[in-house]
Design goal:
The chain is built from one helix and 32 strands. 2% of the residues lie in helices and 45% in strands. About 13% of the residues have low confidence. The protein starts with 64 loop residues before the first helix and ends with a strand. 46% of the residues are buried.
Length: 425
């Protein structure tokens, strides 16, 4: 699994953010009744004396277990050409996240293992703006729907929102270890999921907050309904909850078991909902995808898309409505195209390395799908003919993330090779 599920087991209840703002109340003790979001639609050491061994990096800074593992796992390879139109090399270390401004496709935000985020423009290497003040690897970054704000979050749970025009800090907060961060698609409302199982919702820049408590199991993925008033989350215990954003109560709670004792196998890792809000799908660490009817809270079917039970589902996505398709990508390189009108497999492709992200072209009548893989390849697939129509190279290590521009003409990817690259589609 490539998802940034935090390795930390304990945490400090008294963490402080910039400006000495203390973290909010725990979900169990929070009072949501006073918050109204009616505008949502908008020398000599004896071995026996050693208590703990702390590993340091070259600068003498303590390394986390995640950092030690990632140092060992990063692989590098040679590429015969670079098909990208621009490369951003400002980060020192793996680049974990990348997003394109929805109103300016030449502007990108990236975050990395160097505990930094950058806002930069294609073709302007000297104009990159550094966003700092984070405590851990920056794993989440996103622009608001109108490009006004950029939200950035690190693995430890520090979240900051900057105004894009002047890059000024407008709001900051700290939660438990962060798993995901998303904006509402029609309002300045920010959502986040953390390792304690909570979902948070803030109005920006006021910081008015609502919390949606889980059952103590990590909130690993989330998706906003297109209606704008509900949100679905997938948890580490295999549970899926659909939340009413105004009442802060779960509409449905769907639970399932894998038949295995391994708790990791139960994890929900990715989630999506189709345009009409009539079908929800989740991908799990056990290689299975479950489809639900979100209007009734009933599961429609469960299908195996991995090569085996250890082949985790890394990405799921519904196509534009014209084609009634769903794309599913796995860590071992399986790509399955599912026909949701007949609930049957339409086609499949096998890639030489793991698929980490995928996205459909946003064009209404398009059946074009884009994937990025651990072998550094950006692939374009025609789902109608089940063929790879284009491969683009450039990265010299694992691709970790990707994003598409609103018009579908540009793709940005980020990698273990310390770069983000921009491709023309």
């Amino acid at each position: 699994m490539l998802h940034f599920l935090s390795a930390k087991i304990t945490y400090n209840e008294n963490k402080i953010t910039m400006g000495e703002q203390k973290r909010g109340p725990s979900p169990a003790g929070s009072n949501n009744e006073n918050v109204d979001f009616e505008d949502l639609e908008e020398g000599v050491i004896n071995e026996e004396d050693i208590v703990e061994v702390i590993n340091l990096d070259d600068d003498g800074i303590e390394m986390s277990e995640d950092e030690e593992e990632s140092e060992e796992e990063i692989r590098h390879f040679e590429v015969e050409k670079d098909d990208s139109v621009y490369t951003f090399s400002g980060h020192k270390g793996p680049v974990f996240c990348c997003r394109i401004n929805p109103v300016d496709k030449t502007q990108v935000i990236t975050g990395g293992k160097d505990d930094l985020a950058y806002i930069w423009k294609v073709g302007e290497p000297s104009g990159a703006v550094k966003l700092d003040g984070f405590k851990d690897s920056v794993t989440e970054a996103a622009f608001s729907h109108d490009g006004m704000y950029a939200a950035v979050g690190d693995l430890s749970g520090v979240i900051k929102v900057f105004k894009v025009g002047d890059q000024g800090l407008v709001w900051s907060f700290e939660i438990d270890d962060l798993n995901w961060l998303k904006w509402h698609f029609g309002a300045h409302v920010l959502f986040a999921g953390d390792i304690s199982g909570s979902m948070w919702m803030w109005q920006i820049p006021s910081g008015m907050c609502k919390t949606f408590s889980g059952d103590g199991k990590s909130n690993n993925c989330g998706v906003l309904f297109h209606s704008g008033d509900r949100f679905a989350c997938g948890y580490a215990d295999g549970t899926v909850k659909i939340w009413n954003l105004k009442t802060s109560t779960p509409v449905y709670t769907m639970s399932e078991t894998t038949g295995r004792d391994d708790e990791v196998a139960m994890m929900k890792l990715c989630i999506d909902i189709n345009k009409s809000d009539q079908m929800l799908m989740t991908g799990g660490a056990d290689g299975n995808v479950t489809f639900y009817n979100p209007k009734t809270g009933v599961d429609i079917c469960k299908v195996s898309c991995g090569r085996d039970a250890s082949d985790s589902i890394e990405a799921v996505s519904f196509s534009p409505p014209s084609y009634h398709l769903a794309a599913i990508g796995t860590l071992m390189g399986n790509l399955t195209i599912w026909d949701i009108s007949t609930m049957s497999e339409r086609s499949s492709l096998s890639f030489p390395d793991g698929i980490v992200r995928l996205a459909w072209s946003p064009l209404v009548n398009s059946a074009i799908l884009h994937t990025v893989s651990l072998d550094g390849v950006v692939a374009t697939i025609d789902a109608r003919s089940n063929t790879v129509i284009k491969k683009q190279l450039g990265h010299t290590s694992n691709i970790l993330n990707m994003d598409l521009s609103v018009d579908g003409s540009t793709l940005v990817s980020s990698s273990d090779d310390s770069t983000a690259k921009v491709y023309t589609l």
